[in-house]
Amino acid sequence: MNMHKPGLMVLALMLALPVYAGDNESRPGKGLSEIPDPELNLMRGRYTVGGNAVAWFGVTMISTWQAANGQNLQGALTLGMDFSKGNTPKVSFTPSVSITAANAPLPEASGRSIDGSGLNNVSGLSQSVQIAGDGNRASNVLHLNVRNDGVVPGQGNGGGAGNSSVQVGDASAVASFDGNSAQLQLRMEGQGAVQQWLRSGSVGQSIQLMADGQQVGNRLQIDLVRQSLAGNLPLSQNVAQAITLNRGIGGVGGQ
Fold first, then answer.
1. FRET pair for 235, CA 20 to 30 Å: which of 121, 167, 173, 252?
2. What is the DSSP string of 63-121?
3. Of the candidates 182, 173, 63, 193, the residue with the CA atom closest to the CA atom of residue 115
4. pTM of this prediction?
5. Cα–Cα distance, 217 to 63 (Å, whole number)
């Protein structure tokens, strides 16, 4: 019996000592803290502290075309979507197109052809320039501006879906928005076409020229304004509660 007393004393001493490591692991944390990636991998879903929501999404398209005979085609449109008041955006659309008279007949461009139909199958961002001629200048420019100040630009006087078009002889300019896609197009019969578009899964710029001495430019600007979730107290509290609840779940797999 005496041989077992030291072992009993050690066991009693271990049970009497506080287990700091175990307490720290099971004790819920105070406040919010960033969660490391390995721990996120064990959770269902993903959460971020102080994330961002889209408050404003805007697109501006400008296309210009100066032909060799002095004719000028111009088109522009602005499209804005205001999400600051809820999930259903307030949409504004403002188009503008114009064509100036030509000083001389258009140059002969027969026997030349360009095929850009494959661009209709491209998803994501696409920029294309196809030229069958000499002495031409063409450019596609795209800018993306992202702001985190949550300040939504003014809506302006534009309404929802609509279009604006003008045609002078064989030249036409069209700016349209049907509620699902926006498009800006300049066209000269037998000379080519200039286009910009925004539709489901696709943003693009295309220039097709079949003449000489043309000066063409596409410019597309996308503005994105983000608003911190910290400005939305109920949503922030829900996210914080979800994080706290998931941190207490152990051995849960899945992504």
1. 252
2. EEEE-TTS-EEEEEEEEEEE-TTSSSPEEEEEEEEEEPPPSSPPPP-TT-----GGGGG
3. 193
4. 0.66
5. 6
209 CB burial (10 A radius; 0-12, 13-18, 19+):
buried
Q: Looking at residue 116, what is its pLDDT?
A: 67
| Ordered alpha helix ranges (H), the chain | 5-16, 20-26, 37-40, 233-247
Pairing of strands 215-228, 52-66: antiparallel
HSE-up of 78 (CA within 13 Å, CB side)?
A: 11
**Whole-number Å distance between alpha carbons of 159 and 166:** 19
199 and 178 Cβ atoms separated by less than 8 Å: no
Nearest residue to 136 via CA among 63, 219, 61, 207: 207
Do the bridges between strand 202-209 and strand 192-199 make them parallel or antiparallel, or are there none, so unpaired? antiparallel
Tell me if 94 sits within 8 A of 78, measured CB to CB: yes
**Measured distance CA(84)–CA(82) in Å, rounded:** 6
Three-point CA angle 82, 87, 90, nearest 5°:
30
Which ranges of the chain have pLDDT less than 70?
Answer: 1-32, 40-52, 104-113, 116, 155-158, 228-255
Extract long-range pairs of 228-232: CB within 8 Å, 24+ residues apart.
228/50, 228/51, 228/52, 228/53, 228/148, 228/150, 229/50, 229/51, 229/52, 229/53, 230/50, 231/150, 232/53
In the chain, the N- to C-terminal Cα span, in Å, equals: 56
Q: Which helix (H) or strand (E) element contains residue 204?
A: strand 202-209
Half-sphere exposure of 142 (CA within 13 A, CB side): 14
Distances in Å between the Cα of 221 and the Cα atoms of 62, 92, 209 are 9, 16, 23
Task: Retrieve residue 141's tokens.
Answer: 């420019």
Question: 233 by DSSP, 3-state: which?
Answer: helix
